[in-house]
Structures are given as C-alpha cells and as structure tokens.
Amino acid sequence: xxxxxxxxxxxxxxxxxxxxxxxxxxxxxxxxxxxxxxxxxxxxxxxxxxxxxxxxxxxxxxxxxxxxxxxxxxxxxxxxxxxxxxxxxxxxxxxxxxxxxxxxxxxxxxxxxxxxxxxxxxxxxxxxxxxxxxxxxxxxxxxxxxxxxxxxxxxxxxxxxxxxxxxxxxxxxxxxxxxxxxxxxxxxxxxxxxxxxxxxxxxxxxxxxxxxxxxxxxxxxxxxxxxxxxxxxxxxxxxxxxxxxxxxxxxxxxxxxxxxxxxxxxxxxxxxxxxxxxxxxxxxxxxxxxxxxxxxxxxxxxxxxxxxxxxxxxxxxx
Length: 318
Description:
By secondary structure, the protein is an alpha+beta fold. It is built from 8 helices and 17 strands. It has helices at 9-16, 36-43, 90-99, 125-131, 175-184, 192-201, 217-220, 236-245; strands at residues 19-22, 27-32, 56-62, 68-76, 81-85, 107-110, 115-121, 143-148, 151-156, 165-171, 188-189, 250-257, 268-271, 274-285, 290-298, 307-310, 313-317. The strands form 3 sheets. Strands 8-9-10-7-1-11 form a 6-stranded mixed sheet. Strands 13-14-15-12-17-16 form a 6-stranded antiparallel sheet. Strands 3-4-5-2-6 form a 5-stranded antiparallel sheet, with helices on one face. Strand 8 (143-148) and strand 9 form a beta hairpin.
C-alpha cells in the first residue's frame, strides 16, 4: 500500500457493512476415528475433549520447545473434527499430527482441494446470512449446517479480519452459487489486500506474519488459544513455566504511527534512545490517514497509551 492508498469498496464494506472473501486456500483437515478427541487434546493448547458437536475453539500446535507450529480454528461435529488453518501450515500440521498417530484410531483427511471457504465479514455480516435463512450464531466458533445446491453448507462464527463475521464451508462447485447468493443479500467483494489492511487496523494477528515459530505463546497475547488447567499436551511444560514465572520480555501490540511511510518488518521502535519494540507488519490506513502496525513491544513499554517513536514520528501503543 502506498501513500495514495484509496478507500476501495471492499475495504469500506469490511469496515462498515459486509464483504465476502474467498479464503479457499486455507487448509482444511478432517480428523476422524474414536481417538480423535484424545489425540487433539494432547496435541493442542486448548481443551478439546470437552467440546460438543456444534462447538469449537481456537488453538495452537506447539513443538516440544513450546514454539508455535501453527494455529487452528477447531470445530467439533458429530463424527469428526474440522481443523481450519492458514495455507502455509496446511501440510506442516497434517504431517505433524500424522507423526503422532501410533496406535490411535485416528484418520486424517486433507479436504482443502474439495471444500471451499468463503467468509462474510463486517458489522452487517449477520444480516447478510439472515437473508439466506441462516440463524444468527452468537457463540464464537459455533457452527450450523444447512443444505445447498451441491450438498451441505456449514457456517462457523469466526472471522479473519477482526471485523466480526463468519466462514462458510461448502463444496467447490457450489462457490459461484454461494457468492451470487451473498451478493444478492448485500455483501460486496473484498480483495486479500483489503482484508490485510483491515486485519492490521483491527490488531488481528495472523500465523505466518505476526505469529511464527520465533515466538512463545504468551508473547502473542492470544491467550484465548490456551486452557491452562487441562493437563499435559505437547509444549505444555514451556507454557506453564512462562506462566508460573510471569516472565515475558515482549508482547504483540497494535501501534499507530503518525507518518505516511510504511516501515519494513524489523524496524525498531524507540523510547528515548533505547530500543522499545520491533515492527513485524505495517500498513497505511486509508481511514485513519496514518500507519497502523503490529509490533513486538518490550513488556515495560507495552501498556496502551505508551508513547514511542519511529524515526522521529510519534508512535502510540493502543
């Protein structure tokens, strides 16, 4: 995004109305078998075994050193779980899970090429789906399934930009019909570029950009992904050690910077002359007329309202 960033229809819809996004590249792994809940419970940071059909959660997969291998929106159905993950972690998480299936009754099926993901996001996303006869899902990660031309469509209360909304999972041949239905119900097409700007404006991190194997769970600030009393899981020892010592040196924060020049990843934020943080992503916000960034800020400098600088420009932690 450059210094003449325009307010596009898709960008505006995500912020004030409703937009649809084609997220079909996101990985979709179906987990079946009698031991599926036990395995996922032992492999992720959240409480899987307590989930009932129609419920879900957000979770991390960690390695033994507590580093984050990927994140998932995890949905529970009557006879399987569906793992929704970033395109970059589709194969990595499949292979990671498969490696730990030894004597378990668990089968993994990569559904990414067969099942499409269309998101409806923005303040009026629920109104769009209501016009299609879909009940409003109030509980995060809850799901509801209804019939479409090419089979079932499943809607989940989850979004990718922080604007609120829903993912719809459907068979690939159903996508043109679904998009037509959504547009007739009032949704506007948004591009990945529109979504990327709005996501950072909303301070929503994404695995592969703001969250990587470089960081520990608590540093990301995404503690909704962690159940601290569920018992043992891969990487749990490190998560618990950090929690018990209350010791993290940096944390992911949204920062507004009074400049129009987009800083590259790795740019340092300053407090007086000292390094106070490091930018991992930044965009020029058309609506705010300034830079909005995601940065790992030193813990003492991380409180909202803290005044930092970037090359002389004021930068505020929000």
